[in-house]
Amino acid sequence: MSVYTTVSKDELTAWLGDYSLGKLLELQGIASGIENTNYFVTTSTGRFVLTLFEKLSFEELPFHMNLMAHLARHGIPCPAPMANRYDQFLKVLNDKPACIVSRLNGKSTTTPTLVQCYAMGEMLAQMHTAGQSFSHNMPNPRGKLWRAATSLQVRPFLEENQQELLDTEVALHAKSAQLCLPTGLIHADLFRDNVLLEDNRIGGLIDFYFACTDLLLYDVAITVNDWCMNTDGTLDIPRTQIFLRAYHAVRPFNEIEHKSWQQMLRLAALRFWLSRLFDLHLPREGELIHAHDPRHFERILQNHIATTHVVWL
Fold it and tell me: Which alpha helices (DSSP H) does 176-236 contain, by range?
């Protein structure tokens, strides 16, 4: 959630003319994250988040808008898109598709407790369950083809041992047989900074713009790789187990998911190592840009590969 496209108060005031959200009082750029342009917006009627989409097109975005509305109707705390007077969630702002959504209460954490990990595991399973009745599908845009293409783009920036690691992992996951694992709606980016906590309660899940249809266990692995990780890139056993047990109590894992757990952890680490390498070495121009260190997920991937006893329930 960086600022690539600058929006002035005058420009936003004009844009808000088609909405019944009151008078603009404050506009503040959000520097965290790396994919879209985001601002906190305060009006005389409430607090909102404005998003300008730097990559997603008008054709792709209805999936994400309708998904958030669907999940909200099923009790999942997520941003609610605001419709304008034409009953549209999307409208052009400074030549980009843009939307404005409700701003949820709570704040993210950098050091989740066992209780918070339990709450997150439970909430992720509830979201996956609610997503089973969502009728739209979106193939993962950061799947096998993206991994292959992106690895070629970032490879020249890596040392020889890193190139070997990257080539091996991309080939491994490209050749692996299609796993017979449960699929459905996944968030695909539920890091700690995309979850708002109110004490030990999940107050909101945000940033659904990587959401797609894929393996549910992959989404679990993405989340565990951030929520249950030690500073040295190894899994914290108590946090991992309590997260998985909380999830399992809502949507039970099957035996094939158990056997595929280490593979999913590695795939999830590879995906974010690749994207962080790309953002570091091939960045877009922007006013406020926050690029994450790719070495973090390189260490996580190496540790998953070296692990002989995988943490499970």
Answer: 216-227
Q: Which amino acid does the sequence have at 208?
A: F
Domain that holds residue 180: 114-306
Q: Assign residue 189 the CATH number of its domain.
A: 3.90.1200.10
pLDDT surpasses 50 at 92: yes
% pLDDT > 90, the chain: 88
Whole-number Å distance between alpha carbons of 36 and 54? 5
Instruction: Inform me whether the pLDDT recorded for 286 exceeds 80.
Output: no
Same domain, 254 and 295: yes
pLDDT value, residue 284: 73
Per-residue tokens: 289: 């840009």
Alpha helices in the chain (DSSP H): 9-15, 61-73, 114-131, 144-154, 160-175, 216-227, 237-250, 255-259, 261-281, 295-306
- In tens, the pLDDT along 148-167 reads 999 999 999 999 999 999 99
Average pLDDT for 67-86: 94
Residue of higher predicted confidence among 309 and 119: 119
pLDDT of amino acid 1: 45
Q: How far apart are CA 1 and CA 6, in angstroms?
A: 13
C-alpha–C-alpha distance, residues 309 and 288, integer Å: 42
Asked if residue 240 lies in contact with residue 211, where contact means CB atoms within 8 angstroms, the answer is no
Q: Which two tokens stand for residue 10?
A: 């005058």
* Number of domains present in the structure of the chain: 2
- Give dist(CA 21, CA 15) in Å, integer: 11
**In three state form, how does the secondary structure of 36-59 look?**
CEEEEEEECCEEEEEEECCCCCCC
